[in-house]
């Protein structure tokens, strides 16, 4: 199935390439299109420099050749970003999910639980978003629907304690994966950010090692602020990977092109819809093609 990302960009590109002329103004317009998709200026410039060089060297003149060369330039830029989720040799493998409010953490956990379960793994989700009763209930409903185990805290309770209990239960029951949900928080709120640090410490205590992945969930509509979020969450929580959600409904998903380069944190998963099946591992070529077609 073809990915459909970045609403609207295809039309802009069709118009540009439709002019049938390859000149400097084409590159200027392409730069504008990339920037409108929230590809950062540095990354956009590098991609277009690469494209210019190929156009010159290979004397490309047909719009379709240029479109495919552009897709290749973007794929090249992203090539070393493909990076699968770490799976521990000693079960349970623990993934902690963080991010700002509404980014898609809980939904992503449901999707990943579904995927792992369909691969025959035993999965336990930890409802460590104790901030709102409704959040615990939301994960509970997903757990039932997907058919995985859940460890819940009480509303207002200590999220670290939930993660501790979940890991302990997972060890006792022979669970393969623990997926821990946390409350959404703004990266500018110091006390809430400290709480994340504590959750990390607690899971270290229960597991004997840090969580295998600390996954920052970012809404694909976030634009260049995504970099800033990644920086701030990275400082307190040792983020190991990024999940970009809602790429099905945005024209601005280009910001992820800069995350790895700026912060050394790879994009691991992407969310492309609201259903449990709508999760993909990040594939550079698929992403580049979706950006342009
Ligand atoms: N279209 C689309 N919607 C998504 C995607 N991922 C999540 N959503 C929607 O985004 C909204 C918020 O998702 P949640 O998973 O509740 O987000 P959260 O980060 O857990 O939110 P808080 O716990 O409140 O911080 C829901 O309506 C989801 O259905 C996606 O990949 N595509
Ligand atoms: Mg949530």
Please, could you describe this protein's structure?
The chain has eleven helices and eight strands. It is an alpha/beta fold and 293 residues long. The protein has two domains: 73 residues, Four Helix Bundle (Hemerythrin (Met), subunit A) (Up-down Bundle), CATH 1.20.120.140; 200 residues, P-loop containing nucleotide triphosphate hydrolases (Rossmann fold, 3-Layer(aba) Sandwich), CATH 3.40.50. It has an eight-stranded mixed sheet with strand order 3-2-4-1-5-6-7-8, sandwiched between helices. Strand 6, helix 10 and strand 7 form a beta-alpha-beta unit. Bound molecules: guanosine-5'-triphosphate and magnesium ion (MG). The site of guanosine-5'-triphosphate (GTP) has 21 residues, from helix 5. Magnesium ion binds next to helix 5.
| Portion in helices | 40-55%
Number of helices: 11
Proper CATH architecture of the largest domain: 3-Layer(aba) Sandwich
Largest sheet: 8 strands, mixed
The assigned structural class equals alpha/beta
Count of DSSP E strands?
8
Full CATH superfamily name of the largest domain: P-loop containing nucleotide triphosphate hydrolases
The domain tally reads 2
Query: Roughly how many Å apart are the termini?
Result: 14 Å
Q: Which outline best applies?
A: elongated
* pLDDT < 50 stretches: none
> How do the strands of the widest beta sheet line up side by side?
3-2-4-1-5-6-7-8
Which strand-content bin applies to the residues? 5-15%
Heteromolecules bound = guanosine-5'-triphosphate, magnesium ion
* Fold-level CATH name of the largest domain: Rossmann fold
Order of helices and strands: HHHHEHEHEHEHEHEHEEH
CA radius of gyration: 21 Å
The level-1 CATH class of the largest domain = Alpha Beta
